[in-house]
Amino acid sequence: MAHFKVDCVVVGGGISGTTSAAALAQEGFQVLLCEAGLPNDKRLAGELMHPPAAARLDALGLLEPLKAAGAMPVYGFVIHRGPDDPGTMLSYAEVPGGRASSVAADHALMTRTLLDAVEGRPGIQVWSPARVMDVRFDADGADVEVRRGDDTVMVRTRLVVSAEGRESKIRTRAGIEVQRTEPFRMLGWRIPNGSLPYPGFGHVFLGGPSAVLAYQVARDQVRIMFEVEMDEGTELSDALLAPLPQPFRDQVAAVARTERPQTARVYGLIPQRFTGSKLAVVGDAGGCVHPLSASGIAFCTADAVDLAASMKATRGRRDPVGRALARYERGRRGPMRTRATLGPALVEALSGDSPDLALLRHGLFRYWSESPRGRRRSMGLLSTHDHGLPRMVQEYATVAAYGISGIFDGVVPAREVPSALAGLARRTAGQVRAWRQS
After folding, report:
1. Whole-angstrom Cα distance, residue 424 to residue 400?
2. N or C: which end of the chain has fewer CB within 10 A?
């Protein structure tokens, strides 16, 4: 058996793996990246990133390769309350100190481009295909058994980085428990020359069984995604299509009649911790929420940069890797707590059908329509530029207060007003209580 030695072994060559390798190598560490096999174009996964993610990729020299490969600019989001609603625009340019745009691209193209971009960089070796068969941790590092074709190589490393996604095997082996939400299915299609109302913006269409997300992934391709229950089929119902404006609705229906969708089994996941002995968990392996928030790539890139910064900060000290992991754990906990709170709250506010959520949704759109500061603050949170839980709870309470006007605007029937107000108060109090207990 051959033997090999590096500072860091990154397991998984997706977005979190490639950016982790690039960030660690940029700080002078020797990195081995092992990828068993990138997903094909039938898999539905993260494609749209917020500006903080684009800024990190730019600093790592990885944004230009994506643009050269055809990634499309994204300037924000437009939320439509029905097929005839002109939409409420939330622009990245409104966030103080942030970038005015980001990018989106087909997931398979994005992962392949990033892997190609890091291969051959100083300090990085890419083994692909290469499958990690076993990891044995000890006080000084880990022995990683890697299978490459017919050969097995034992790699000695100071740090293992699990970038394996939601189903991380190394996270499980390390005894890190996770909390999972009930799964659902996402159905996605690429729509040739799809007619989105606002090219260059992500679109959220409301009014159906669940929110629908659409955005450009190429000059002549629009991605659209629908959420359905696990026991539902893959055919698009009239109810799912109803929120879409014309002619986009007919374009989507025509493609869905002739092409099978890309699919993904999706669930929220929160690990009890993000590190183990000489192990860092990054990206979706370290937690994920509903794809409507589009926060996945932002956290992938943030984890990469923060882990590398932690390794740099503790270099030369006693037990540098242990100290770096403790620093990474502390730094990640707050943003992940905010993400895990904001994601479900956003989905409920936009898609929930109870009277109290109808008031909350009314308040949200009134807040965005009447308050430029409200749009700035909301977009700061949604784009992950601001990840403070106190700000998120403050914004929730403000939106709830705006929502009370809905009782005078006929948002809920008069007989349901008392229960709607009580429900809105309970939800707001629950957010405040969760913040105080965090």
Report:
1. 7
2. N
For the stretch 171-181, pLDDT in tens is 999 999 999 99
> Backbone phi, then psi, for 76, in 5-degree steps?
145, -155
- Distance between CA atoms of residues 105 and 215, nearest Å: 9
0.85 exceeded by pTM: yes
How many structural domains compose the chain?
A: 3
b/e sequence 111-149, b meaning 16+ C-beta within 10 Å: bbbbbebbbebebbbbbeebebeebebeeebbbbebbee
CB-based contacts of 142: which residues, under 8 Å, 6+ apart? 9, 135, 136, 156, 157, 159, 160, 278, 279
Q: Is residue 436 packed enough to be buried (19+ CB in 10 Å), middle (13-18) or exposed (0-12)?
A: exposed
The dihedral over CA atoms of 352, 353, 357, 363, expressed in degrees to the nearest 10, equals: 90
- Neighbouring-strand partners of residue 151: 148
End-to-end CA distance of the chain: 48
Mean pLDDT of 354-365: 97
Cα(17)–Cα(181) distance, integer angstroms: 25
> 54 — phi, psi (to 5°)?
-60, -40
Domain membership flag for residue 346: no
Name the one residue in this structure whose structure tokens are 């183990």: 276
pLDDT at residue 338 greater than cutoff 70: yes
User: Which domain, by its residues, includes 244?
Assistant: 71-104+182-266
Say what the pLDDT of residue 4 is: 86
Are both 120 and 256 inside the same structural domain? no
